[in-house]
Amino acid sequence: MAHYRKTYMTRANEARIPIRLGDIMVDAHFVNGNMRDNENATLDTEDTLVQFVIENSPMFGKRIFLKSKILIEEPVEEPELTADNVTSLADARAFLEKEYSINPKSVISPNALKAQIAKLGLSFPNLQL
What we know:
two-stranded antiparallel ribbon, 3 helices, 24% helix
């Protein structure tokens, strides 16, 4: 799911706007505005609930505006590939490439893969060939 850092603004030097949506209450605190220099007060948040409440408020688009929206990439952790968790031919090819620098194109067929595994003296206990 996409995760965003959003900046909202309102025309004020500083403003505290309570916003209620159902049972949820958000105290939107806008800061760092300077109306003399034509700078609006802003509120930054990554909280999806706060974003939802603000954007579904009747004040959104009239008193509260979206200034910017930045996509935040969340790192996807891949499990470490070991001989014990190799369960498919693709995993075996990736393991051989990572650990032994073997070109995966050289072990495309199951027989070539079996031969390479035997040559290296490896065993993959969870791989069904």
